[in-house]
């Protein structure tokens, strides 16, 4: 048996609360994987995506990753959220196996472009297909493979970031493709430079617009949630 | 058979999103019942509690209540949240029966001082025992009766508003009494006058404090959520 290949890790931080989506408010340690097959124009995690940051990504064995989660959480089980970048371009099965053996719960957020058998080991699989404003294109066959790979997970949900009316129309069509997935919509945050402060009023306005265009327009399917961490902490990393 | 007694209704509004707790972000029409057996010193809904507002509470038959929910929702099923005041001092069984027959889902939020058989008909029962800062005292026997009455509900959760360290210690003890109930904590909002604007930074600071004192201190049980509607819309009614 050979040693597992090291993982490229942009950051591991927490415990803090999950700021968005299905697990909003839940105590979480985040593992942010380095590297991504997408380049969304509004990416808020370029430090984990763009290879310009590659030398800041630590090569870590699954054991080293797990030891860091244990250290941060004081050995007390909580939810571990694996995000990125796209964590599905790497193999997190060994990390998940270690954590589950110790009673930790796992969530993973990925765009749904690469299916992994370990999706089925998760408690929560969040698939975030990227709408037109991202300038990326979704491969729906690959997405369906991800849904299938997550069949053993506790639950799989779909989360879509919405910047404009075109994104919203696209989200309705995406939901029609996968009505079996609970849908979460999140207003996009156009200010992603951590050096610049966030305007909470502008974020509130985007949230209001999205609620008006969905709930207010009689479409009651999606849950609409802002990025709490941006509303409350601003754009700083590691929170 | 006699006609059901009219309900005292402070307001019916929506659809908007649920701003707090287990259903945060979900499309909801709110039925706010008038009247309460508590007088929490920081009550944010005195217009539905204090009898000074009594003449603003409309006496409505269950059918009239339901017709208004239908009108607001355009007849499209969504979640109906019954709050107050304390809705459990009135009989909402006929409203729930009408709505469930048409595919609507029901949530109810009550402090847990009065148990009702119709708790078992709900999709989500939110029991919100009031911590010491409220200056109210919880009758834990009555609370346990509420938990028992909700056994048939889709789920029952506990939500506690936290103003200070004493409230937080109390919440830990409350959770120890009912570890079977998923726990949600919410920072208290000391500014409850709808005529005064909310300071979003102060709300953010209260949220940060609560996250530090729970998640940051290694207590990973509760989900910590702010009142989104206050963060985003301010204290205005009917949103």
UniProtKB/TrEMBL annotation, chains A, B:
Catalysed transformations (reactions): 6-carboxy-5,6,7,8-tetrahydropterin + H(+) = 7-carboxy-7-carbaguanine + NH4(+)
Binding site for S-adenosyl-L-methionine: 42-44, 85, 128-130
Transmembrane feature ranges: none
Domain of life: Bacteria
Gene3D superfamilies on file: Aldolase class I (3.20.20.70)
MF (Gene Ontology): 4 iron, 4 sulfur cluster binding; carbon-nitrogen lyase activity; magnesium ion binding; S-adenosyl-L-methionine binding
Cofactor: [4Fe-4S] cluster; Mg(2+); S-adenosyl-L-methionine
UniProt-listed InterPro entries: 7-CO-7-deazaguanine_synth-like, Aldolase_TIM, Deazaguanine_synth, rSAM, rSAM_sf
Cofactor binding annotation: Binds 1 [4Fe-4S] cluster. The cluster is coordinated with 3 cysteines and an exchangeable S-adenosyl-L-methionine.
Keywords carried by this UniProt record: 4Fe-4S, Iron, Iron-sulfur, Lyase, Magnesium, Metal-binding, Queuosine biosynthesis, S-adenosyl-L-methionine
GO annotation, biological process: tRNA queuosine(34) biosynthetic process
Annotated Mg(2+) binding sites: 45
Pathway this chain belongs to: Purine metabolism; 7-cyano-7-deazaguanine biosynthesis
Entry-linked PANTHER family: 7-CARBOXY-7-DEAZAGUANINE SYNTHASE
Function description: Catalyzes the complex heterocyclic radical-mediated conversion of 6-carboxy-5,6,7,8-tetrahydropterin (CPH4) to 7-carboxy-7-deazaguanine (CDG), a step common to the biosynthetic pathways of all 7-deazapurine-containing compounds.
Protein name in the entry: 7-carboxy-7-deazaguanine synthase
Organism the protein comes from: Allgaiera indica
